[in-house]
Structures are given as C-alpha cells and as structure tokens.
Design brief:
The chain has 14 helices and no strands. By secondary structure, the protein is mainly α. The chain has one domain: ABC transporter involved in vitamin B12 uptake, BtuC.
C-alpha cells in the first residue's frame, strides 16, 4: 500500500519569502551603488568619497557639482519606482507580462494631451495636469472595453489610435512646437528635479495602503477567476482597484517627465525572475525600476557627451529587443 506523505507548506512559503527579502536587500544595495555612480559620472568626474561627503554636508570641492546632479538622480529614482510598481500591478492583474503603461495606451494618452497643450501654446504649468488627464482618459477607455483576456489587446488598439492622432497634431504644428512635442513624447529628465519628484513621491506614499493590500490581492489574482470566486473573492472589484492604482502611478510619472518606455514593461519581469516568484513582487519591482531608470539616464547624458539624449531614447532602444524576446519566450 502506498503511503501518502504531505510536506508542510509553511517551509516552502518561508523559503520564497526569504528569497524575496534577500533580493530586495540586494536591489537596495545596487540602487545605492548606481545612485552614487550617477553623481560621480559627468563632464566633471567626482570620486565616490567626495560624493558621499557632499551628500552628508561635509565641505568638499565637489559640493556644487553633486548639488546640481542630485535633483535629476532623485527624480530618476522616484520615476523608476512609480513605473516599476505600475508595471507590476498591471501585469499581475492581467496575468500578462506584456501589460505595461507604454503598451496599453496610458503613455500615448498622456502624450496626446501634452502635444495638444504644446501646439496650442498654453503655459508650461498646464502640461502636467493635461498629460495626467490624457493618460487617465486613455486608461479608462481600455478598462471599459478590455475586460478579461482582451485587456492588452484593447490597450494596444487604443495606443495605436492615440499615437496616430498625436502624429496628426505634430505634422500640423509649427516646427518649433512639433520639436518640443517630440522631445516630451520621448521622455526626458533634463531640466526637471525636486518639484516633479515630489509630486510623484506623494502619489506613491498616498497609495502605500493600497500597495500593502495589493501584495496579498495579487496572490488571488494569479488564480483563475472561477477558483477565486469559489473562495469568496470579488474578482472584478479587486482587479479594477489594482488596475486603477497601476494606471494612476503610470499617469502621474508620465505627466511629469514624458513617456519613459520599457521600464514598466521589464522591471516587474526582471524582479520576478530574481525572486523566483509566481507573480512580480511589488517591492522588488519598484527597486528594479529605480535601478533601470538611474542607469539609463546616466548613460543617456554621458555616453554621447556633450550631447545629452532623452532617457526615453535609451530605454526604448532597449525595450524593443526585450519585447521581441518576451514574445518569443511566451510562444515557446
């Protein structure tokens, strides 16, 4: 007679949790390293020791240089955190690694609204609120028509349509306005700093209760809808709240600096692979997004110096091959 042996589940759960903690600590250390590295690298090189002295208020010759670089680097961290969280939430809800703000139309909606503001000659202060409304509006259309497995497909359709309308506005605009709109659409951190970082940080902090709840909610989202309903989960309401949280994070980040593609798409999947988890872990995805954004922005402003590229150029260049690889991997 065959004896059935049941192994205790808590041990497995503890192992997965411990690995996630280890990965999170490692990503925190890596983020600290790339943050200091971003402050060291530039037209004037600064030693790490001088950077640390300047950061902690100790007088050093590099104080002014570091002071000029810190706001942009802090903004890169905050934008990366917001996009990493947004991607993890959207991918967790849809159970699809292709679901990200730059694929499902949020970035394109914000871009259309920003382009309309720029072409109309409105004040710069109007740009972020208009972009926020545009991103949320596009997301509302996707959420209304893209229920269930059609979520990503509806998002792609909305993104393509909105992008076409945006191009029409750019073609009909004055050359200088069209160029300004194109730069914003690519996404850049140049010229922005603490003010923009503060707006996005406030949104992230305000959503902390939702994010803490989302950690457990995403576990049930990984189940099939029938199984989730059988254990008493309100599937539709839960997915809607998680999707709205992801859209709000992405829309606010895009409204401040433009469309920084690839980060929200790749960060959750990289974090999931590192943590060996069934779904993208939120904390690790946020840190991965921050690391990717800081590294990309540092490379964008230094590799082709004295020309500074918008960070969106570099992230999009990396995102294209990554998306192809992801599609091939899913097909296999």
């Amino acid at each position: 007679m065959t004896r059935l042996v049941l192994r205790p589940a808590p041990a497995v759960s503890f192992t997965l949790h411990r690995r996630g903690v280890v990965v999170g600590v490692g990503l925190l250390v890596l983020l600290a390293v790339v943050f200091v590295g971003a402050l060291c690298i530039g037209s004037t090189s600064v030693q790490p020791g001088d950077v640390l002295r300047a950061v902690f208020g100790i007088p050093t010759w590099a104080g002014k240089v570091v002071e000029l670089r810190i706001p942009r680097t802090v903004l890169a961290v905050v934008i990366g955190v917001a996009l990493g969280l947004a991607g993890a939430l959207l991918q967790g809800v849809s159970r699809n690694p292709l679901a990200s703000p730059d694929v499902i139309g949020v970035s394109q909606g914000a871009g259309l609204a920003a382009t309309m503001v720029i072409v109309a000659g409105a004040p710069v202060a109007v740009l972020p609120p208009a972009a926020l409304i545009g991103g949320l509006g596009a997301a509302a259309v996707v959420l209304a028509f893209g229920r269930g497995n059609r979520f990503v497909l509806a998002g792609i359709a909305v993104a393509v349509a909105v992008k076409a309308i945006t191009e029409i506005f750019i073609v009909g605009a004055a050359p200088i306005d069209g160029q300004r709109a194109q730069i914003w659409l690519i996404g850049t951190l140049a010229g922005w700093g603490y003010d923009e970082a503060l707006v996005v940080a406030i949104v992230v902090v305000a959503l902390i209760p939702v994010l803490l709840w989302a950690g457990r909610a995403l576990d049930t989202s990984a189940l099939s809808d029938d199984v989730a309903r059988a254990i008493g989960v309100r599937v539709g309401a839960r997915k809607l709240v998680l999707a709205i949280a992801g859209v709000v994070l992405a829309a606010f980040a895009t409204a401040q600096v433009g469309a920084v593609d690839f980060v929200a798409l790749a960060a959750p999947q990289i974090a999931r692979q590192l943590a060996k988890a069934e779904r993208p872990p939120l904390f690790c995805a946020a840190l991965t997004g921050a690391v990717l954004t800081v590294v990309a922005d540092t490379a964008a402003r230094t590799v082709f110096a004295p020309t500074q590229l918008p960070v969106g150029v570099l992230t999009a260049a990396l995102g294209g091959p990554y998306l192809v690889w992801l599609l091939v991997r899913r097909k296999r």
